[in-house]
Write a structure and sequence with these properties.
Helices cover about 35% and strands about 25% of the residues. With about 200 residues, it is α/β, with parallel strands linked by helices. It binds S-adenosylmethionine.
C-alpha cells in the first residue's frame, strides 16, 4: 500500500479543507443519484473521509465505501458514528484488490482514477466487480487538459512530497480507456466551474 502513507499524512488537512466548488459538487451528487436505486449495493472506491458516502447512503440499499488510507477511514468512521445510517460501512482496501460483497449494482470513484498505478488494469478490475449493466460513475481530474505548466508543477510537488503519483491524461483518452475496458459511455460532462474534471457515467457491457 505505497500510496497509503501519502494519504494517511494528508488526511487531517483533507478533512479540514472546504469543497472549492459546492455547486459543482452538488450537481455531481444529483447526477450520480439518478443512476442509483433504493435496493442497490453501491461500492465507492477511494472514499476519503466519507463525506460523499454519507450523502449517497440514503439513496441506496447498501453502501460499501473503501479507501487505501486508514487515517482517512478513521475520520470517515467518526462521522458515521454521529449518524444513524445502518447501511454504510467503510473498508480499508486498495482499489484494485478483491473486495467482498460483489457483484455490485454500481461503483463510484471520485477523484481517484488519476491516482491508480495502471488506469486500464483499474478499469478492467472495476468492470469485473459490477453486475452486467452495472454503472461506473466517476469524476476525474484530467491533468493533461489543465495548463501546460501542470505536469512540471506536479513533478516539483512530488519531489517535495506534496503530491502523490498520478497518471496524466486528457478527457478523450480517459473515455477511450473506459470503452476499451468494456464500458458504454452513458453520460459525460463537466459540473460547476472546472472544465478539466470530467464526470463519466458508464454502463458495463
Ligand atoms: C483526492 S482524494 C478523493 C477522496 C474522495 N473521493 C473525494 O472526492 O473527496 C483520493 C482518495 O483516494 C484514496 N486512494 C488513493 N489511491 C488509492 C488506491 N490505489 N486505492 C484506494 N484508494 C486510494 C486516497 O487515500 C484518498 O482518500
Amino acid at each position: 500500500m505505497a500510496n497509503a502513507t501519502f494519504w494517511d499524512k494528508a488526511a487531517q488537512k483533507y478533512a479540514a479543507s472546504k469543497i472549492a466548488d459546492m455547486g459543482g459538487y452538488e450537481e455531481t451528487l444529483d447526477r450520480t443519484r439518478r443512476f442509483l436505486g433504493p435496493e442497490d449495493h453501491l461500492l465507492e472506491i477511494g472514499c476519503g473521509t466519507g463525506s460523499t458516502a454519507l450523502k449517497l447512503a440514503p439513496s441506496v440499499g447498501q453502501l460499501t465505501a473503501t479507501d487505501i488510507s486508514g487515517e482517512m477511514l478513521a475520520i470517515a468512521n467518526e462521522k458515521l458514528r454521529a449518524t444513524d445510517l445502518a447501511n454504510l460501512h467503510f473498508v480499508q482496501s486498495e482499489a484494485t484488490k478483491p473486495i467482498e460483497g460483489g457483484p455490485f449494482d454500481a461503483i463510484c470513484a471520485f477523484s481517484l482514477l488519476h491516482l491508480l498505478d495502471d488506469l486500464d488494469a483499474g478499469l478492467a478490475h472495476f468492470h469485473s466487480l459490477l453486475k452486467p449493466d452495472g454503472m461506473l460513475i466517476t469524476k476525474t481530474a484530467c491533468l493533461r487538459d489543465m495548463s501546460v505548466a501542470m505536469a512540471p508543477l506536479i513533478k516539483v510537488m512530488q519531489w517535495l512530497g506534496k503530491a502523490p503519483d498520478v497518471i496524466i491524461f486528457t478527457a478523450p483518452q480517459l473515455e477511450a480507456a473506459f470503452e476499451k475496458a468494456g464500458f458504454e459511455l452513458v453520460e459525460t460532462g463537466y459540473h460547476g466551474k472546472t472544465k478539466s474534471t470530467r464526470f463519466i457515467a458508464a454502463r458495463r457491457k
